[in-house]
Write a structure and sequence with these properties.
Layout: H1 2-26, E1 31-33, E2 35-37, E3 39-48, E4 53-63, E5 69-73, E6 81-82, E7 87-91, H2 94-136, H3 142-181, E8 184-186, E9 191-196, E10 203-204, E11 217-232, E12 244-249, E13 252-264, E14 277-284, E15 298-315, E16 324-328, E17 335-339, E18 341-345, E19 349-354, E20 361-363, E21 377-379
Parallel strand pairs: 1-21
Antiparallel strand pairs: 2-20, 3-15, 4-11, 4-15, 5-7, 5-10, 6-9, 7-8, 9-11, 11-14, 12-13, 12-15, 13-14, 15-19, 16-17, 18-19
Amino acid sequence: MLQKKSKIIALIITIAVIAFVIWFFSRPKPLEVTVSKAQTGKVESVVTNTRAGTITACRRARLAPVSGGQIAKLPVTEGQHVEAGQVLLEMWNEDLQAQQLLAKQEAVAAKARAKETCVRADVAKREAIRQEKLAKQKLASEEDVDRAAGNAEATRAACIAANDSAKVADAQVNVVQVALDKTILRAPFAGIIAEVNGEVGEFVTPSPVGIPTLPAVDLIDNTCIYVAAPIDEVDAPAIKPAMPARITLDAFKQHPFPGKVRRVAPYVQDIEKQARTVDIEVDFEHVVGEQSLMPGYSADVEILLDVKENTLRIPTEAVLEGNYVYIVNRDSHILQKKKINTGISNWVYTEVLSGLTENDIIVTSATLEGLADGLEVRIKENNDSQ
């Protein structure tokens, strides 16, 4: 009887060991999670552009002659720096130059005639005065006095008319000069020639109303640039002029530029009906001299709405809907789902106001399927939980 009982006990133990071995090797492996420590640092609340912005020159002029004609001189080339008032293009205008020379000569002749007429008027006036004195001495008749006075009045009127004719001649010179100026394209400000469309000998015509054509010369003032970028209409009310900003460029990925909001458009763009935006403009606060920031570069902007220094923060990807996080027990590797109170955040960090302490281990792969309160997990190596 005792031997039979021992065999039963041995069988039960064997079955238990086999069951344990089967369970041990068939049990589900702990989920592997990535983690991060809750740490003290800086958190920024930012707003970013919805589509790539563009570096824009404060002044850009796409210039073309007022009237059509044949290009006679084209003294500038693309990439050349020009000063304000410098000639960029001149059309054939020898006919107008001849007219201008003729008008100037006529103006000179008109002034000479006016001078001659006015001298005669002065002589006639003195003669009229002399006749009046003689008449008082009974040495001249009334007829002589009237004749001298009439002649003086007539020559005075002729002097006035001659001076007016001289003014008309001067005005004619100005008329020709205006016509001549229309054939010369000058730089309205100092800048860089971005584009030249045309060659000496070619004909250019002004753009018809409502039909844009290529400019003869495209001039850019590259001494003043800013970034124009679209912001989602939901974020726009929080943005104000003079707010600090950060500008990043594909051409200088490792060097963000400090900036400042210069303008927020007072209207919403509805180019994309389901993604309405508001245009903003951001100035560069300073640019390193050796960095040539050309208009046309694509750029992204971050508007800094708020900044917290030395605050408790965790990766934003660790925060679940409802402001919950998973904390990993350092010893047992058991998960604990915990509610936290958050402050400002961005796509990198979220400020924690309460619910966590520094160096708590937080699961950053929070959206991993299967995570649950009380679950044992395995921490992925090579992360900042070490």
